[in-house]
Specification:
The chain is of the alpha+beta class. Helix content is 35%, strand content 15%. The chain has two domains: 2-75, Ubiquitin-like (UB roll) (Roll), CATH 3.10.20; 84-154, Orthogonal Bundle (DNA polymerase, domain 1).
Length: 155
């Protein structure tokens, strides 16, 4: 099967098995920032934004994403030009092993696009489904608060 996917603003043509999941198609084509965690939709390591919705790519058939807009964490920013959320995660010490970070950053981005001044409870709900084994979440929540403040300041 073949399909054109719009990933981080660029059209990409991929060939894949008709039963393939989006996670595998992305990773097989170099999008290793989408992490392969539990494959059950429980850990959040594989999240992407698909047509404006935060989804676990391990729970999406690749064929159903043909022609849709897909954003990975690299679509927000990179090491040379990081997004304010990525900067806030680094500055607040919310990045440890880094495995969960792409999913956490995308969950925070999705939240802050909808709500520029979330409460701590709203942040916790937005991050629910993203597991971290290193930080205990305190620094991650601090990072989202910091990012929200930075984004409000910068418009």
């Amino acid at each position: 099967m073949e399909g054109i996917f719009k990933i981080n603003g660029e059209d990409k043509k991929f060939f894949f098995n008709s039963r393939a999941i989006l996670l595998d198609v992305l990773r097989e084509n170099g999008y290793t920032e989408v992490k392969d965690g539990c494959r059950e939709g429980e850990c959040g390591a594989c999240v992407v934004i698909l047509d404006g919705k935060l989804v676990n790519s391990c729970q999406v058939f690749a064929a159903s994403a043909i022609g849709k807009d897909i954003k990975t964490v690299k679509g927000l920013g990179d090491i040379h030009s990081p997004h304010l959320i990525q900067t806030a995660f680094v500055e607040s010490g919310a990045v440890q092993c880094g495995f969960c970070t792409p999913g956490m950053v995308l969950a925070a981005y999705h939240l802050l696009k909808q709500n520029s001044d979330p409460t701590e409870d709203e942040i916790k709900r937005a991050l629910d489904g993203n597991l971290c084994r290193c930080t205990g979440y305190v620094k991650i929540i601090d990072a989202v608060k910091m990012a929200a403040k930075k984004m409000r300041k910068n418009g």
